[in-house]
Amino acid sequence: MSMLDTKDRQLLELLYRNARLPLKTIAARVGLARSSVRERVARLENSGIIRGYRAEVAWPVSTGVVQVYFSVRLLRTPATALVRRLHERREFERCCSIGGDVDLLIAASAESMLALNELRDWLATQAEVAAVSTLVVLNEDFRR
Q: Which CATH class is domain 61-136?
């Protein structure tokens, strides 16, 4: 999809803020018929602009979930095999290739500090990894 018009941008902004809005509500806010909104959403999904919908979860403190970011320096880039292995493990939630002294920034979660340590050890022993730094999340102040 090459160009987004004003209605597409309004629709995307509404869905970005609340993906559970009913089509009827979206249609009223952007000034289109419900069927037109449905068609636009389908087109945006098929084109890859809307990549998915997710639940933002505010884990209760009592669950014992430990959130962490790993900053990883690699021996060489790219490390596509490592990224595939990371994607296969549910503990790794997000992986970004970045520029600078760090090659990968990885968001992960574990059920305990022991599980986190085991996850870090696994990551550090991967053949492509030169060094790992662990940044434990103390509090998530906001997320967009």
A: alpha beta
